[in-house]
Amino acid sequence: MVSDKFMVNSDAGRMAAARYATENFAWQARLDKRATLRLSLLVEETLGMMKAMVADFYGRLWFCGDDGVCEIHLEATANMDSDRKQALLSVSSSGRNAATKGFMGMLGEVISNALHNVGHAVDTAYGQTAVSGSVIAPAGLGTPDLYDLTPVWTLEQYRANVEKGRLSADALEQAKEDLEKSIVANLADDVVVGVKGDRIELVITKRFK
To answer: What are the backbone dihedrals phi and psi of residue 16, each rounded to the nearest 5 degrees, phi first?
Structure first.
């Protein structure tokens, strides 16, 4: 089952519409009250991250679901943040976003960098470098034209790097703390930041069975 796509932005009215759309999809997918709440929390924190990353953002949000597996898709275009990215990074003399905090802040930085580096290596938080490469289908639920997303970053791989201690000592400690505190990191089974042409898509997968 694939929901309609609807516009989202930083406007309070559109945020409210996103909550309604989430509840409507949950009802159609026959999710119980607890699952609906978790799906709503994932959407709210994701949109909150976008609003924190750029005060004025525009994108499209939709859902896919099948047999207890749900995907939240948030799509933006490279042009959306091309100028705002420079303003965002200008707050730090080093060229990095000093205001980035927590797991969602780090994920926002990954997305911001990806908007400027489609098809190239993307410098991420905590000293990692993710390079776009193999072709993936996030969970097989999306429409066919999304099956050729090229991954920039995935939560699954990030968790594996943390578990295997593939970060510096300071970064490892910070990463573990951020993963414990983040709603998305705790509730989501996977998060994929993918690219296709000038489009960036965030796909959050949650299994309720």
So the answer is: -65, -40
Q: Which residue has the higher pLDDT, 115 or 2?
A: 2
Exposed/middle/buried for residue 2 (C-beta within 10 Å: 0-12, 13-18, 19+):
middle
The pairing of strands 129-131 and 150-154 is unpaired
To the question of pTM greater than 0.85 for the whole model, the response is no
Which long-range CB contacts under 8 A does 168-172 form with residues at least 24 apart?
Answer: 168/126, 168/127, 171/126, 171/127
What distance in Å separates the CA atoms of residue 201 and residue 74, rounded to the nearest whole number?
6
- Could you read off the pLDDT of 2-14 as tens digits, one per residue? 999 988 877 777 7
Cα–Cα distance list, 182 to 49, 126, 177 (Å): 11, 16, 9
Domains of the chain: 6-207 (3.30.565.10)
User: Do you know the residue count of the chain?
Assistant: 209
User: What distances in angstroms separate CA 79 from CA 10, 70, 76, 117, one per listed residue?
Assistant: 17, 28, 8, 12
